[in-house]
Amino acid sequence: MAGGFFEYGPAESIIRQKLLTKIRKTFEDFGFDPIETPAIERMKVLLGGEETSEKIIFQVRTTGGEAKDIKKDELALRFDLTVPLARFVAANPEIPKPFKRYQIGQVFRGESPQAGRYREFTQADIDIVGTQSLEADAEIITMIYAVFKNLGINKFTIRINNRKILNALPDFAGFPEKKLFLLLRLIDKKDKIGEKGLKKEIVKLFSKKAAEKIFAFLSVSGNKEEKLAVARDLLKNYPEAEKGIQEMVKIARLLEASGVDSSNWDIDFSMVRGLGYYTGPIFETVLNAVPSIGSVFSGGRYDNLAAVFTGEKLPAVGASLGVDRLFAALETLNLLKKKATVAKALILNLAVEWQSDYFAFAKKLREAGVNTAVYIGDDRAFQAQLAYAVKKEIPYVIIYGEEERKKGTITIKDMLKREQKEIPKNNLAQYFKK
Q: What global pTM score does this model have?
């Protein structure tokens, strides 16, 4: 990685593609359809009509030609896949609702590179647009669970909260609503500054009485049922919070019905996301063995985003998987089995006059579903070609030399078992089918 931008060699790219194939398959198992949107959007689309934004984005400038009529500051690289989704839905009102979509693609942010944060990265997004039903929220969370299980990852936790509950804190603790944003930003830094640091900052920002009430809320503990019961008692006089708790209860029931293991999700009232973005349930997923890498698959309900483009509320819920962050975490845990190549067989190129035979053998193997390469390097020495197969970790080498040609056979060398077998050349494809 250079400057926050990735380059992956064959070994990394092969395993990444396998991960993405499993992720895509899981999305489609749940009936989500793919879409693709441009990597470049208009600035006013990305900023949602705002003249200023905290988002650090990459502007795109043209050098003339057919695009010289476009102002140099009108275009930028997308920083996520959600804003383009909102524009897409607004531009295609005929799409049946609810609209269940997924998209996998590159996004760009002008942030300072650090552990778990990059300037270019791959996101895999899932969203359900056009329904207020909590079944949609539960389905998104269930799919997050399914993705990790299908990737063979078992030790993870999906933390769930609700913005309606958090929005009741100013009334509950007795501080101005305009300070809620500041409080949520502090809570969001808990992992960095620790519990003592968080308490210190809260006391500094609020009155002692308000701080005590905030601590009482953030300290709610126990199992899921106990947490909800305590929160309900604390916030019993605040209708919006009660509505949020009722939503949590329903989601919990649906997760149980969907077979989501209780050990893989929890209620966490200190978890905040998208400070001015989400409107209901929110959730994020951490890998238990590497919590320092942060959330890898997170999201929530956002019912206001599309209003910028449609002029009316369009309820939606979704989540985003940081593929590169997940990949880095799995590398740290040594859970990736990398392969140097996708080739399964290498046909040695031992004589110019037999090259037609080599290419014919390759055709038969490919038709049989065997990824096959014919050696095309400049050094045609037998040992050089064999060394190439070893370096590339190709499991089978096909040898057809003078002796084999005379007998009408082919020698297959198993590089892993370090043994070889001579078979009739007409049985080549059949050998691999077995």
A: 0.90
